Structures are given as structure tokens and as C-alpha cells.
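Table 4 source record.
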Amino acid sequence: MKYENAKVEVKVNDKTLLRTYKKTVVETFDDAVAQVTVLYDKVRDKKVTADSVVWEVVTYALDLKVRADIRQQIMATEAGPEKALEKAFKDLVAGFIAAGIPEETATTLAETQMATVRAAIESAKAAM
């Protein structure tokens, strides 16, 4: 296994925010076993071939989680709370739609929940 320097970019309005991190790159079967037991079982049971495609999938999965965490940190600290709230709203709508709720109803539900969240934030600020 090796590590590479990688970056996460987030565009907010007219500026680009950037953070770097160490990307884990899976190169061998031993690397994959160390990272993902399920993958080891599939390779051992001959359900998949242990070739470069498998290593790319494992590397991508590991990297995706790291990138998502870094992006959330950037959004929370640098893009400001309003951007984080916008993302939360979009995620709520998408979650409701994924649960089978029509888009118009999902949007209304998310708006109601976000109004409650905004009120709680204002209340907490006032109490400080």
C-alpha cells in the first residue's frame, strides 16, 4: 500500500477552497485484505478476479470517504453555516424522494424541518 498527496476542491460562489490530504492507494492483495475483509472473501471464493480493477475499486472506496469528510469540514468552516444548511436541505429532499415521497411533498417537508433547524440555531445564538 502506498500514500499519495491528493486534494479536495470546493467551489463556493466565485472562490475555490482547497485542502490536501494523504490518499491511500491499494496495490496488492495483502493491501486489500488489510482494508476490506469482504473483498478478501470474494477473491478467495473466486467470485472476483484479483486484478487491477479490484484494487481501483478498493482505492476509490477508501478515497471517497476521506474526500467526503474533508469536503464537509471545508463546508462547515470555510463556506459558512448557510452553505451547510443548503446542503442539508438538498440532502433531506433527496432522502424523502428516495423514500418514495413525491418531490413537491418532499420539498415542503424539508422546508418545514429546516425552519425548525434555523429557529433552533437562532435560539442557541441568543442564549450565548
